[in-house]
Amino acid sequence: MLTELWSFRGRYRILHMTWLAFFLSFVVWFNFAPFATAVKADLGLTESQMRIIAICNVALTVPARIIIGMVLDRFGPRITYSLLLMYAAIPCLTFSLAQDFNHLVLSRLLLSIVGAGFVIGIRMVAEWFPPKEIGLAEGIYGGWGNFGSAGAAFLLPSIATAMSFLAVGQINWRFAIALTGIVAAIYGVIYYFSVQDTPPGKVYQRPQRHGGIEVTSRRSFWAMLAMNIPLVGILGVLAWRLTKVKFLTPSQLSIVLLFLVGLYLFQAYKAWDVNKELMTGTKRYPAEDRYDFSQVAILELTYFVNFGSELAVVSMLPEFFETTFSLNKVVAGMIAASYAFMNLAARPGGGLISDKLGSRKWTMTLLTGGMALGYLILSSMSGGGWLPLAILLTMLASFFVQAGEGSTFAIVPLIKRRVTGQIAGNVGAYGNVGAVAYLTLYSFLAGPTGNRIFFQTLGVAALIVCFLCAFFLKEPKGSFAEHHEGEESQVSVSKVPVLLEERD
Predict the structure, then answer these.
(1) 268 falls in which pLDDT band (50, 70, 90)?
(2) HEC letters along 414-464
(3) Which residue of 232, 354, 360, 420 is most buried, as measured by CB atoms within 10 A?
């Protein structure tokens, strides 16, 4: 696979076009961070308001990933990704025209939906690559696409500076943010006319019913309802934080909380509607068609601690280096960018290790343990430490975090084929639950002591999940098979590039 990766034919063309779609969605999702200082000065925002905007940037990604997972399983990744990219232009233009804090919050909440694009490509890549190569393929998709956050940090300030003549000498952050949405929308059209959901001869498997995840045992149904609680509860935490900056009044908070309770009950009803035949005993799945939802729950927790911590650390790392080592903002920002740069190699590396080690379970366990150790070591760093060592430790911790993300999604497509989109949506949503939880904690911390507590929290959480992986995660069936579960095509996946090349 590595030798064919640089070709632009067949399944590799699909992979490259899909990671670029993810890259652009991440550029859009993270287009605020490079201009935080400029926006703060331009609109006269407080530090507390800036932290609220950072939380809003990941808030609606939680329900969006779940909803998009359902849409994806029903309509396919081609149309779902195309529409999401075209939608991105709306909140980008709205944010670029904002004149006060309230408008920034509303537009950022709408823009956070674009962060849900990740789960779409997971299903697309899984359709085109066999289980034995799924780790590296998903890692390339996630890692190279995830680099969009670093791409935004490096490209957008230059664009804004070059267009400063339109803003009377000031950095033109409005133009740069609007541009990201326009480019994403144009690529959405290109993507729609350039890809297919499956290789020729393969059937796109859909769940029998829509609205909730189809489970195959009663115990899994109750586990699913329990794991849905944090997905709604974290939105309540966000609403509570918004009252602290007077964006919501106490009475409005009560209305929001009642709405969230209603949302959870509606989710539970839809889950019951999809699985009522199972729960009433009128349907029983054969052993070969069952899957254990506890495996999904563990993967949700792995993504909580790895991707959730990545989003949170990316937000605070420049300040950490600036205050801990008395650096200026530019140098601190450049050093902190090394954390995101690791995505190019670390996430594909995690997927490749998962493919080659022979056990996806123990790959997940070892990488989560390494992440825990990295964060605990970072918590001991102080101003008296050696800066090059701190940079090295940061990059080492980053490798384990992002390789762990690649390892998580080397397993997700192997749980249950026909509901891969919904499973990926729930697992991906837990990454954002982790981000909101960690960023909320960080908003209460300050100074070197706060940084130490923050990294210790990340490390301890990762240790707990490492234990769960070691003792409760199971090796997926067919982890290294030639074909996916229930694959009906008689065409060998390895011959697909040749067939598509002949068509072209």
Answers:
(1) very high
(2) HCCHHHHHHHHHHHHHHHHHHHHHHHHHHHCCCHHHHHHHHHHHHHHHHHH
(3) 354
Cα–Cα distances in angstroms (integers) from residue 454 to residues 258, 317, 375, 413, in the given order: 31, 11, 9, 32
Between the CA of residue 89 and those of 79, 189, 218, 294, what are the distances in Å?
Answer: 17, 12, 43, 38
Q: What is the DSSP letter of 418?
A: G
Reduce the secondary structure of 242-303 to three states and give it as a string.
HHHCCCCCHHHHHHHHHHHHHHHHHHHHHHHHHHHHHHCCCCCCCHHHCCCHHHHHHHHHHH
Q: Cα 429 to chain center, whole Å? A: 7
Task: Name all domains of the chain by residue range, CATH numbers in brackets.
Answer: 10-194+205-483 (1.20.1250.20)
Q: Mean per-residue pLDDT for 14-43?
A: 89
Q: What is the distance between the alpha carbons of residues 492 and 207, in angstroms, rounded to a whole number?
A: 24
- Sign, CA torsion 56/119/92/27: positive
Measured between alpha carbons, how far is 26 from 272 in angstroms, rounded to an integer? 34
- Least Cα distance to 484 among 128, 89, 26 occurs for 128
Give one DSSP letter per residue of 189-256, joined into a string: HHHHTT--SS-TT------SS-SS---SSHHHHHHHHHHHHHHHHHHHHHHHHHHHTTSS-HHHHHHH
The string of pLDDT tens digits covering residues 225-248 is 999 999 999 989 888 888 887 778
The CA distance from 318 to 309, in Å, is: 15
Neighbours of 48 (CB within 10 A): 11
Nearest partner of 39 among 88, 96, 89, judged by Cα? 96
Region 285-299 average pLDDT:
92
Per-residue HEC secondary structure of 329-370 comes to HHHHHHHHHHHHHCHHHHHHHHHHHHHHHCCHHHHHHHHHHH
Indicate the length of the chain as a whole number. 504
Q: Helices 387-411 and 360-378 sit at what angle, rounded to 10 degrees? A: 150
Number of other CB atoms surrounding residue 477 within 10 Å: 12
Q: Residue 204's pLDDT band (boundaries 50, 70, 90)?
A: confident
CA 418, 422, 425, 429 dihedral sign is: negative
Residue 409 CA: distances (Å) to CA of 143, 293, 304, 367, 424? 11, 16, 13, 13, 8
Q: Which residues contact 397 (CB under 8 A, 6 or more apart)?
A: 371, 374, 375, 377, 378
Q: Tell me: pLDDT of 498 over 60.
A: no
